[in-house]
Amino acid sequence: MKENGIDTKASRFNMWKLHLSVATVTLIPAAVGINYVAKAFAEGLKLPLWLGSLGTYLASMLAGPTAGAISGFINNIIYGLTLSPVSTVYSITSIAIGIVVGVLFNRGWFSNVKRVFVSAILIALTSAIISTPLNVIFWGGQTGIPWGDALFATMIGNHINIWIASFTDEFVLDIMDKVVVAYLAFFIYRQLPQRMINYFKDNQ
């Protein structure tokens, strides 16, 4: 069955297979590179979002949640060691994003535009739930994105609990970021040659 150009049945894979095939091992560095460049681009232009999970999405869609989780984790470590030490703290968030994207994709939730939006909200919620305690512990509840932190400061100024304020700050930013990245990944995936998609699927 095809939805919006994606063969949802053929794109399913053995989701939790732990064996890393040659195809997957080749994909992971490419996904890490995409994450790294996208995040550096967003930070360089001071965009109100991160974009640093695009490669993670694509790896999860092509090769499953294990590949996505590994890609996200490695990128956070490398990015943290080279450009932004704060990135390392959020490795666990990237792992969770890779897992959730892989599960949702495998269940057909990246098969059309409407489902992609719902998927992005679920991914944003996952990211916010995991990141909020890290924000509170390490950064006093803030995210580092100015307009999100302005919302946080306003809520704190109105005596709203720091956990609620921090979650709101994170979730509002995550919704925008994860929706943008989800649609980018969706449209990129649709443009990939079917032969490439089959190559990863057949090597699961």
UniProtKB/TrEMBL annotation:
The keyword Transmembrane applies. Keywords: Membrane, Transmembrane, Transmembrane helix. The chain crosses the membrane at residues 20-38, 50-74, 86-105, 117-139, 171-189. The gene is ecfS_3. Coiled coil: none annotated. This is Energy-coupling factor transporter substrate-binding protein. The keyword Membrane applies.
